[in-house]
C-alpha cells in the first residue's frame, strides 16, 4: 500500500470573508491510498486557526506507515485535517475493494439529499443585502458576522431575503456583552441558531446566560473529548470532519452528542466536493446542514456533488465512497 499527498488549489467564485480575514482560493490537500491497483482518496483543508499549514499536515501524513489501518490511524494522529484525509481515503478504498458503499460498511442508512445552508460572506450591510437578495430563493442562509457593529448587517440580510431561514456564524468575534445586546434582536429577526459567538477559550460567560436562540459550538467542539467542556454553554455541536479527524470519529461524535442531548449541525471548511462527500453521510436528519463549500467555488472535482432544490445529494461512487 502506498500513500501520496498533493496540494490542490480551487478558485473561489468571489472573495470569501469572515471575522478572521479574506480569501480568494481554497487550498486543500488530496490524499490517495493505493492497494493492489485500487485507489481510495480523501481531502482535507488545513486550518490556521488550529495551527495547521499545508506543510505541517503533509508532514503528518507522509510520516504514517504505508500499511496504516483505519483503527490504528485513530491513535497514530490527533483529530485534525491530516487524519481526516487519510481516514476518508481508507473508507473510500475499502468501498472500492468490497464493491459496497461506505454507508453500508459503516452501518448507516442510505443517504438522501439534505437542505444545506448557503453562506453569505462578511461585508458592508449594503453588499450583504445584495448577496441576500441574490440568494433569497435559498431556504437557508448562513451569515458570517463577528464584529461589534453587526446589527445593520443582520437587518440588511433579513430585508434582502425576507422568507429564508437564517443562521449566524460569529467565528468567535463577539464579546459576551455584544451577544447579550444582540440576542433579543436575533429572535425578532427569526434567526434559528448562533454559531460560536464567543472565543472557544473564553466562553465561560455562556454558562447561565439566557440563550433565546440556540448556541452552537464550532471552534469549541472537535471530537468526543470536547463534550464535557461544552456542558451548560451550548445547545448544538457543529461536526466538521477536518476537526474530528475523519468520518470514523464523526460518526462516534454524533452518537455521543445526541446521547447527551445536544442538537447536531454538520459543517465544512471551504473545500471541494470530495471534502463534502463523507460529511453528507453524517448530515442525515441533523438540525442544520452546512455543506455549501462547492457552491462557493469557481471550479470543482470532475464528478462534483449535485445541488438542487432538494439540497445536497450524497456522492456518486465515481466521486467517493
Characteristic key phrases:
321 residues; alpha/beta; eight-stranded parallel β-sheet; 13 strands
Give an overview of the whole structure.
Helices cover 30% and strands 23% of the residues. It has eleven helices and 13 strands. α1 packs across α3 (81-98) and α5 (125-134) packs parallel to α6 (151-160). The model has no long low-confidence stretch (mean pLDDT 95).
Summarize the topology.
Elements: E1 2-18, E2 21-35, E3 38-44, H1 54-62, H2 70-76, H3 81-98, H4 102-106, E4 118-120, H5 125-134, E5 140-144, H6 151-160, E6 165-169, H7 176-188, E7 191-195, E8 215-217, E9 236-239, H8 241-244, H9 247-259, E10 263-266, H10 273-276, H11 279-282, E11 288-289, E12 307-308, E13 311-312
Parallel strand pairs: 4-5, 5-6, 6-7, 7-8, 8-9, 9-10, 10-11
Antiparallel strand pairs: 1-2, 2-3, 12-13
- Molecular shape: globular
What is the averaged pLDDT score?
Answer: 95
CA-CA gap between termini: 18 Å
Order of helices and strands: EEEHHHHEHEHEHEEEHHEHHEEE
Question: What about the largest sheet?
Answer: 8 strands, parallel
Strand content: 15-25%
Derived structural class: alpha/beta
Q: What's the tally of helices?
A: 11
What strand line-up does the widest sheet have? 4-5-6-7-8-9-10-11
- Secondary structure: helix percent: 25-40%
**Strands, total number:** 13
Radius of gyration: 19 Å
Please mark out the parts with pLDDT under 50 across 5 or more consecutive residues, or reply none: none
Amino acid at each position: 500500500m502506498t500513500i501520496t499527498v498533493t496540494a490542490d488549489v480551487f478558485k473561489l467564485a468571489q472573495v470569501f470573508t469572515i471575522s478572521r480575514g479574506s480569501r480568494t482560493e481554497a487550498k486543500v490537500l488530496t490524499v490517495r491510498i493505493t492497494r493492489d491497483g485500487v485507489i481510495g482518496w480523501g481531502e482535507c483543508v488545513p486550518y490556521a486557526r488550529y495551527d495547521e499549514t499545508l506543510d505541517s499536515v503533509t508532514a503528518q501524513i507522509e510520516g504514517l506507515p504505508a500499511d496504516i489501518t483505519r483503527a490504528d490511524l485513530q491513535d497514530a494522529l490527533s483529530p485534525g485535517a491530516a487524519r481526516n484525509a487519510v481516514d476518508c481515503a481508507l473508507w473510500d478504498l475499502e468501498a472500492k475493494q468490497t464493491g459496497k458503499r461506505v454507508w453500508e460498511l459503516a452501518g448507516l442508512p442510505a443517504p438522501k439529499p439534505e437542505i444545506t445552508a448557503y453562506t453569505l460572506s462578511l461585508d458592508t450591510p449594503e453588499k450583504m443585502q445584495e448577496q441576500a437578495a441574490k440568494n433569497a430563493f435559498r431556504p437557508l442562509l448562513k451569515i458570517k458576522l463577528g464584529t461589534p457593529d453587526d446589527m445593520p448587517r443582520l437587518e440588511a440580510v433579513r430585508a434582502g431575503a425576507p422568507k429564508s431561514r437564517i443562521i449566524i456564524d460569529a467565528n468567535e468575534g463577539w464579546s459576551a456583552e455584544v451577544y447579550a445586546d444582540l440576542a433579543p434582536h436575533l429572535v425578532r429577526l427569526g434567526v434559528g441558531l448562533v454559531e460560536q459567538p464567543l472565543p472557544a477559550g473564553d466562553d465561560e460567560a455562556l454558562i447561565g446566560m439566557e440563550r433565546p436562540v440556540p448556541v452552537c459550538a464550532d471552534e469549541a467542539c472537535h471530537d468526543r473529548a470536547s463534550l464535557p467542556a461544552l456542558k451548560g454553554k451550548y445547545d448544538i455541536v457543529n461536526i466538521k470532519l477536518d476537526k474530528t479527524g475523519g468520518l470514523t470519529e464523526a460518526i462516534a461524535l454524533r452518537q455521543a452528542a445526541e446521547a447527551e442531548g445536544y442538537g447536531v449541525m454538520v459543517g465544512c471548511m471551504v473545500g471541494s466536493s470530495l471534502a463534502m462527500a463523507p460529511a453528507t453521510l453524517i448530515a442525515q436528519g441533523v438540525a442544520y446542514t452546512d455543506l455549501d463549500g462547492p457552491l462557493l467555488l469557481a471550479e470543482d472535482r470532475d464528478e462534483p456533488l449535485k445541488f438542487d432544490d432538494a439540497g445536497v445529494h450524497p456522492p456518486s461512487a465515481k466521486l467517493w465512497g
